[in-house]
Amino acid sequence: MRYFEIIESAERSAARRAQEKQRKAHERIASANDKRSTAATRYQDQLKVCDDAIKKARAALQETSVRSHALRDCRGVLFGYIEPQGYLLQARDNRGRLVGWYDPKLNVTRNSRGAIVGTGNWLSALLVHRR
């Protein structure tokens, strides 16, 4: 009988070791999942910060692209607007039709058909002449 007790004891010991091994593996998996979850949360936070920065930049762009310069005569009658469009300046008449644009990189003003009007910014002259 002593032989069977030794075998049973060895089997119980092996089962305990296997359970301990399994418990440690579960702990390592849980720890890895926690790390993964923390990293995902940090990543989501960074994405939110980036999204907020993009929204802020877009709002700033929309604020700057608002009709910024209204041209009026001495009675206050509106000739049109000169507004930034990217790096160009566009002139629009009082009905919103494109009159011309000025390219500061080339220092050239063009009319609505794309023909060169002159060097320098002649947008206000285009608006007044259109009247």
Describe the structure.
The protein has a six-stranded antiparallel sheet, covered by helices on one side. It is built from two helices and six strands, in the order αββββββα. It is rod-shaped, with a radius of gyration of 37 Å. It folds into two domains: 1-64; 69-130. The relative contact order is 0.07. The protein has 131 residues and is an alpha+beta fold. The termini are far apart. The model has no long low-confidence stretch (mean pLDDT 87).
Throw out a few tags for this protein.
single chain, 131 residues, alpha+beta, 2 domains, six-stranded antiparallel sheet, 2 helices, 54% helix
Please state the overall shape, judged from the principal axes of the Cα atoms: rod-shaped
Number of strands: 6
Structural domains: how many? 2
Sequence of secondary-structure elements:
HEEEEEEH
Beta-strand proportion: 15-25%
Tell me the strand order in the biggest sheet. Answer: 1-2-3-4-5-6
* Biggest sheet character: 6 strands, antiparallel
The poorly predicted ranges are none
Radius of gyration from the alpha-carbon trace, in angstroms: 37 Å
Give me the secondary-structure category: alpha+beta
Distance between the termini: 118 Å
Structure described in brief:
This protein is an alpha+beta fold. The chain has helices at 2-64, 123-130, and strands at 69-72, 78-85, 88-93, 98-103, 108-111, 116-119. The chain has 2 domains: 1-64; 69-130.
